[in-house]
Structure formats: structure tokens, C-alpha cells
Amino acid sequence: MSISQINVSGTGFSVSGFTPPLTLAAGQSTTFGVLFNSTISGSLDGTVSVVSNATNSPTIAASGTDMQTVSHSATLNWTSSASTVMSYYVYRGAQTGGPYAKLNAAPASLTTYTDSTVQAGQTYFYVATSVDSNNVESTFSDETSATIPTP
């Protein structure tokens, strides 16, 4: 049998691992992949048709479900500590008490910070420091935590 092509229909479906034409002897088999990668949310149907010189070339039903990616963030707000404060750094740790890693490369002048690099199902621990007009950074603030929900 000679397979000349594999046709795929349906939004988001494609074939991998097949290079036409492919000749198979009696009793031989082959494998190929049907991938699903859609930008449309929900269940989608498609078909996979094998085009060959055989009298019984198959057509296979395919279905896939694409789920919307859920993005998470943690927003921190605080009250300015003194009139000499010019800006703030925000730090995050994976366990209470640190160690902490600085999240913002340059000090921020606002008293709010949104951490958009968090992952679902994780708990993060945050502290902040203030920077005065002489560019002197304070000690860490009290720690707060955020637990990011699992979708």
C-alpha cells in the first residue's frame, strides 16, 4: 500500500511525523501524530483522512478541547512611611522569612506593585524597602503573603 497524503480538517488540528509518499508492505504499520493547538476556547471537532491506493483508506474522527489560559497576579499596596521616601523596591520569597529576590530593577515611586510572574497553586512572601532622597535603602518591611489560586 502507498500512502500519498494525510488530510486533516478542523480548526487547530495538524499532522506531524509523516512524510509522503510512504509505502508499506503487507503487515507493516506506521505512526504519525495529530496535534491540536487552537486559539479558540472550547471543544472542536475535526477529521483525519488517510489517502492511499488501498480500497479501505480510513477517515478518523478527532476532537480537542482548548482551555483559556488563566493568568494570575498579586497586587501589593502600602502606605508611604515618611516624607523623605522617594521610591520603593519590592522583594519576593518562596518561604516565610526569605531569602527574597528583588522584583523591580529600578525603584518605583508608587505605593503599589503588581507581580504578574506568579504561578497558580503557589504561595509567595513579599517585603518592601523604601529609598530616601539620598538613595539610601531601608530595611525590609513586615512580610505579607499571597496564595495564588489553582484554576
Word description of this protein:
This protein is mainly β and 151 residues long. It has two domains: 2-66; 74-147, Sandwich (Immunoglobulin-like), CATH 2.60.40. The protein has strands at 2-9, 13-16, 22-23, 33-36, 42-52, 59-66, 74-77, 85-93, 100-102, 112-115, 123-132, 144-147. Strands 3-1-5-6 form a four-stranded antiparallel β-sheet, with no helix packed on it. Strands 9-8-11-12 form a four-stranded antiparallel β-sheet, with no helix packed on it. The radius of gyration is 28 Å and the shape is rod-shaped.
Using the CA coordinates, give the radius of gyration.
Answer: 28 Å
CATH class of the largest domain: Mainly Beta
CATH topology group of the largest domain:
Immunoglobulin-like
Biggest sheet: strands side by side, in what order?
Answer: 3-1-5-6
Short key terms for the protein model shown above:
four-stranded antiparallel beta sheet; mainly beta; single chain; 151 residues; 2 domains; Immunoglobulin-like
Structure summarized in a few sentences:
The protein has two domains: 2-66; 74-147, Immunoglobulins (Immunoglobulin-like), CATH 2.60.40. The protein contains no helices and twelve strands. It has strands at 2-9, 13-16, 22-23, 33-36, 42-52, 59-66, 74-77, 85-93, 100-102, 112-115, 123-132, 144-147.
